[in-house]
Amino acid sequence: MSSERIDPLSLKFCAPRYFEDFVVGERFYLPSRTMTEGVFSAFQAASGDNHPIHYDRHYCRAQGHRDLLAHGYQVLIQACIGAGVLPQMMGPSLIGFLEQSSRFLKGVYCGDTLYPQVEITGLKPQNTTGVMTCRITIHNQDGEMVLEGEQKYLLRMRSNG
Q: Running along the chain, 161 residues long, what does each successive block of 10 average in pLDDT?
């Protein structure tokens, strides 16, 4: 057996990029996810949201819904960029998540599969940092957009020294 050692902090998924390496129009897809009963239960447990529209099928049907209706935040978290390669590309240049806005366009039900996408729509340079603005969209299995919004991230610029 080899006694070769590694430095876990030196392992990289991909080469890190800085603010000025990104381009408006770049798109990043996130893995699809089906909204199973398990996802509904986990979100209910984590959020504490106990409204019956999220867990009581009889109640949902009485309100005109075809199945359990996903909580808005349950849908929004599907656009968490950490599920994809973008934050790996940002690497140590990522300083923080600044802002999030979203519009919920259609209901999401138990059994629906969601397809998130992130697109860089703005890059605003500052002195040593820059703000990356991203449009987020989530579509369902029928190709219908169920959510759109915007996220902003603060990134370091490449050191000139």
A: 80 85 96 96 93 95 96 95 91 94 98 98 97 98 98 90 46
Query: Would you kindly state where each structural domain of the chain is located, as residue ranges?
Result: 16-156
User: Phi and psi (nearest 5°) for 28?
Assistant: -130, 125
CB-count burial class (<10 Å; 0-12, 13-18, 19+) for 68: buried
Which fold, 16-156? Thiol Ester Dehydrase; Chain A (3.10.129)
Predicted model pTM = 0.89
How many Cβ atoms are within 10 Å of 129's Cβ, its own excluded?
A: 16
Query: How far, in Å, CA of 16 to CA of 4, rounded?
Result: 25
